[in-house]
Structure formats: structure tokens, C-alpha cells
Design a protein that fits this description.
2 copies of one chain form a homodimer.
Chain A lengths: L4 H15 L8 H8 L3 H13 L3 E4 L5 E4 L8 H9 L8 H8 L3 H21 L4 H4 L36
Helix pairs in contact in A: 1-2, 1-3, 1-4, 2-3
Chain A binds a DNA duplex (30 and 30 nucleotides) through helix 1 and helix 3.
Chain lengths: 168, 168
Amino acid sequence: MKISQKGLYALQAMMMLARHYNQGAIRIRDVAYEEGLPEKFLELILLELKNARIVESARGAKGGYQLRRPPNEIHLSEIIRLIDGPLAPFGDAEQLRSLIDHDAEHRALYQVFLDVRDAAAKILEHTTLADIVSGAGSSKSSKRKKKNDQASVLPMVVHGHVNKGKDE
Amino acid sequence: MKISQKGLYALQAMMMLARHYNQGAIRIRDVAYEEGLPEKFLELILLELKNARIVESARGAKGGYQLRRPPNEIHLSEIIRLIDGPLAPFGDAEQLRSLIDHDAEHRALYQVFLDVRDAAAKILEHTTLADIVSGAGSSKSSKRKKKNDQASVLPMVVHGHVNKGKDE
DNA sequence: ATAATGTCTATTAAAGCAATAGGGTTTATG
DNA sequence: CATAAACCCTATTGCTTTAATAGACATTAT
């Protein structure tokens, strides 16, 4: 799984709409401006989000976009799966099919990949826009894991040994 | 993070070498044949693994490749980081820098990404070639989590709702 | 000597990604 | 009902990455 620039834009746009939830339709231009995104590209992204019925639009003058559901009912996993495809850490299912159809060792490798996917899914399926956009929708399910509750909002980027140039 | 075809090849090649650990140098051709990989492409991959000192080579007639360490001391994370780069689920650090430098909301999003990376890293840094290649190196650290011990080797690919076309 | 094998650099074809272009359709409003 | 403001939709472009191949070079066992 890899979050593309487009996927990041989608998340940012959705955060913006979450921030302005219940304020009526927001124009593409305003979303683009407030988040610093390329307007025409954002247009395509919002269209996809609309077709997936995550947002809704009003056409014509005074038109714009808004969330179809409260921010605490929109999970990051939805958005990422829509824009960037499956959360699995491997390419297409095709190349993996060969692994599965092979011996026990190859299936064991495949299972590790599934474990990784499930770990990612667990996080992204439990995190909503409301969890991220502080002032947003009346969090009924603001259930980020206790362990990270303070960490999630603070900088704390370089806290242990994890960020010694290995990843990021 | 996304495991490329090349990364998958690398893992397969390493599994093959783990399977034949302590059997002397193995020719590229044999690795390619046994795992069904394109020989010339594999050549480049093994070269990278050699430069990273994960495998070693013998040149000339009777030459070939072998692991430099026992299979239970080679983690999947090493291989994947080498071939496919950081485990983080986002592109380059550049686009993320902008998130960090922004407001608390954007940092919160960034933190979710870090959580995903850490979850993936936790799995891949704890899984060794020995954990995957059954007959391989005298597992000192065959520490796959109990919860999945049986699952990891069995088919069980389509077990619940997880694989209903969502991911994979 | 020579055949077998790894080393290295370059090239290419295809795919994916980010972004732009531009005309079409709908709607509020005066 | 005319017009401007917006979303809708398809196509195209340039760029980068990826997977793979080609071919000459260097080393070693026999």
C-alpha cells in the first residue's frame, strides 16, 4: 500500500470539508485554496469521492461540495481505498496468486503480507475524519487507541530509534 | 509502502538461499530456475543484496551466492527496505514535510501514517527468513506471534469478510 | 587456455502518476 | 429568460518509475 499524492490530496480535501461540516456547500476553489491544492486536479478527486457517495455536490451557482455523513462516520480507509486501491502492501493480486498456488513457504510469505495489510487496515478503519479534525463532528467514535492519545496530535516525530533515517 | 515485483523477487531469492543455507555457493541460474524468476533481472537484485552485505558471492567457475548470516538473523524488513525503500505508506518525505509544518490537524494525519508504518515495521522486523522457510536455519528466533502461528502456514486465504474484494 | 560464472553500465518498453485543457451541463438570480 | 457561477466529464500531456534485456568485462577452477 502506498498513499499517492492524489490520495493525500483527497484526505486533505476531506479534512477541509470535515472542518466546515454543516456549513453548506463549499466550492472546489475554496477547498483548493484553503488546503493549497491544484484546483483542476482536486476537481477530479472530488468527483470520485462523489461517485463513491462519500460527499455530495450541488451544481450551478451557489453550488459546491459537502460530506454526506458526519466526520466521525467517515474512515480514512474508505478514502484511501477509493483513491489508491487496496491497502495490501503488494502490487496486484495477480503476482500474489502465484505465491498462494505454490508451496507452504510461499504461502507463509503471503500470510506475512496479509498480516501487514491487516495491521494497516486496523488503524485506518478505526480512524475517522473526526479523530483528525479537532473541531469537527461531535465525536461519537473518537476511538484512537489510548496508548497514542497524546502522541497523535503532538509533534513527537522523532521520539525513539524508529526515525533514525530508516523510514519516513 | 509497496512491495514491488522486484522486491518480491528479492524475497523469493532470499528464501531460496535460506532453503539451501550451508550448501555452498548457489548459481544465479539455479536460483532463477527454482523460483521461476527472470535470470538477468535477478542478477541485478542479487548484486544489490551483495552490496548491502546480506549475501556474499564467489566469482568465476563454481561461483555463486550464499547468505552471509543464518536465515534466522535476516529479517524481511532488511530486504524490503533495501529494494523498495522505507516502509512508510507515503511517498517521499518531501510532501510530508509540508504536513508536519502545518497545523495540528495535518500533524495528526501525519501521525496516523507513522502509526501505520510502525505497525508494518513491527511485523517485518520480527519475521526472519527462518520463520518462513520451514526447513531453514535452526530457528533461534522463530517468534511469529502466537495468535497467528497456525494461520501463517495454512491456506486460509479466504476466511472471513476481509477478502471480499476489498483488499488483496 | 578456456569455460563458467559473477560484475557492471546502458538501454528500452510499458505503465503509472500528476497535472492541465477545454468544452458541456446545471442552477440561482435579477 | 439571460447570464454568470459553479460542477461534470473526457482527453491529453509530460514526467517518472518499473521491469526487463543486452552486451561487454573481470575473475576463477580446472
